[in-house]
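We modelled the chain as a single entity of 106 amino acids. Its sequence is:
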Amino acid sequence: MSFIINWILRFGIIELFLVFFVSVNILTFVLYVMDKRRAAKSKWRINESLLIFFTLACGGIGAFLGIRFAKHKPNKRIFKFASMIGLIVALIPMIHIAHAFTLEAV
């Protein structure tokens, strides 16, 4: 347990959260693109509830990009609503991270 605490203190909580945030958004984008490709090939699809979960779990930017660039489920209201809520959920920590980095520069 002390190894994990030392690791967090060494890298910093903001940097670790930033890595988590970017990873979740990339994973969300990849899930949307994979589901779109599987739909085109009539293969097994990713569950919609999993897509919405990742969208709301700080993956709003990846979901928004997946909907726009892959044109995946752009007409479904639940995905439009989830991507907008996900964007809001994603932007709040990004504003705090940007604020923290500007405070360190002063």
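As a brief sanity check on the tokenised model: Residues 77-105 form the longest helix (29 residues). Residues 13-105 form one domain.
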